[in-house]
Amino acid sequence: MSKSYRVAVVGVTGAVGELILRVLEERQFPVRELVPVASARSAGKTLTFQGATHTVKALAPEVFDGVDLAFFAAGGSISREYAPIAAEKGALVIDNSSAFRLDPDCPLCVPEVNLEAARNPKKGIIANPNCSTTQMVVALKPIYELGGGIKRVVVSTYQAISGAGAQAIEAFKQQSLDVAKGEAPSGTEKLKGQLAQNLLMHWTPDEASGYQEEELKMVHETKKIFGDDSIRVTPNAVRVPVLSGHSEFLAVETNQPLDPAAVREALASMEGVVVMDAFANGVYPKPLDVVGRDEVFVGRIREDVGNPGGITLWVVADNLRKGAATNAVQIAQGLLL
Fold first, then answer.
1. Above 80 in pLDDT, residue 263?
2. pTM for the complete prediction?
3. Is residue 118 packed enough to be buried (19+ CB in 10 Å), middle (13-18) or exposed (0-12)?
4. CATH fold of 5-129+324-336, please?
5. Class of residue 166 by CB neighbours under 10 A (exposed 0-12, middle 13-18, buried 19+)
6. Under CATH, domain 133-318 is a member of which superfamily?
7. DSSP characters for 49-83?
8. Active site residues
């Protein structure tokens, strides 16, 4: 008989938590019993999973009794308090927050890149990377191997509002309607400005460096995932008026010069990557192409005109799926099935 698991999802009523349930169903993960968990405010609500109705439980230490696998999608403060409790009770924890990403005893995992690093985690906790890091390192994996290592990556991200959560999505929808009707935009506090018909850089600033915390995550997480502190990452993150789907421009310099045709071939054979690269014919990845998809889409693969031997490319993925829920479920699949 194949093994099945008692699975808890913390933050189950949020955008990522709901999607974790959907991905578990789509991938037919063997869930023997679901333990849906959320705040006291959401406790008592019902949801449907695998055709059955489940009642949401309030977050408390005892909900993890007998749990084999716990997904956390409720923010860093909740993870810091409750993820160790779940792990101590015997659950394998996969955490979507930033709480444990740089903890040396907690693996930071993207299965296509470094699944082996996630086996037997010392604390029983595996961290899911930042959404923008995840899609970038999937695209960088074959480039790293072809080029004998990466010297430097310059990355500009164009990030959808869904990465800020369900409340931000609703605020953006209403704000867009307001602006279209010529009314004063609502939701400026939640969105930290007017995003409708505009661009924002609204993540927490790091005053010492001049960067945003969102950008620095990409610097540190990329090094940890590849196990290579020599990689230099120069990031810039921008929030764009798009509901879902993060886009990134990458300029990559490797230790050995690269040929675009070889990079294209390597990416085309990479698990979890879809190459859409016929730019002269208008074919390249766009956010609308990737919504609802688990792969990372790559196009505009070309030599860096400003740095011969380097490569530039365009990378797009569904930030709620591959950037969060799907990656978490893939970790569980890779380790448990």
1. yes
2. 0.96
3. buried
4. Rossmann fold (3.40.50)
5. middle
6. Dihydrodipicolinate Reductase; domain 2 (3.30.360.10)
7. ETTEEEEPEEP-GGGGTT-SEEEE-S-HHHHHHHH
8. 131, 246
